[in-house]
Specification:
It is built from 3 helices and 6 strands; from the N terminus they run H-E-E-E-E-E-E-H-H. The protein is α+β, with helices and mostly antiparallel strands. The termini are far apart.
């Protein structure tokens, strides 16, 4: 079993981080930019046979990224399409993104913008927490009585906008 984050320094992940670092200068004057956050790869690990999954944190977003280990050439017809990916915690919608340098990848927004994070390390801790939550099968999650609190909404449903049944 590979530890989460062991692949944060993988050349494909680092190429993606470098691409966001180049974009950074053009983002600094926008009102969604949080100068307390550094661009970082968090928790990347193998996913399936040919992809890496982890979180990319920037001063303007926190996205779970599914990055092919072998570059997939940029195809503008794919950019913006929504695809459903089965994670251990359940299905999530990802949007296809990419650029000439990194090729195609898939992104699932966790926070955008990231203006709520004001303390050092707070955004990184949240990225790790959400990654752990999404990579934990729903059955393994401790539940309150009958799987829901007094409101009838369990924690996972509240976080991801689903109602308990």
């Amino acid at each position: 079993m590979t530890a989460a984050g062991e692949f944060d320094d993988h050349p494909r992940v680092q190429a993606l981080i470098e691409q966001f670092q180049r974009i950074d200068a053009g983002m600094r004057d926008l009102p969604i930019y949080n100068d307390k956050i550094a661009i970082a790869a968090i928790g990347f690990r193998p996913f399936g046979d040919a992809e890496l999954l982890g979180v990319v944190l920037t001063p303007w977003f926190m996205n779970m990224i599914l990055l092919p280990i072998e570059p997939v050439p940029l195809n503008m017809a794919e950019i913006g399409k929504s695809v459903v990916i089965e994670l251990p915690a359940g299905k999530r919608n990802f949007v296809v993104g990419g650029d000439e340098t990194s090729g195609l990848y898939k992104a699932h927004s966790l926070h955008s913008p990231v203006l709520n994070f004001t303390l050092p390390g707070q955004a990184r801790a949240e990225a790790k927490r959400l990654l752990l939550l999404l990579m934990t099968p729903a059955a393994a999650e401790p539940a309150a009585k009958d799987g829901a609190g007094a409101s009838g909404v369990d924690r996972r449903s509240l976080l991801f906008g689903r109602r308990s049944v």
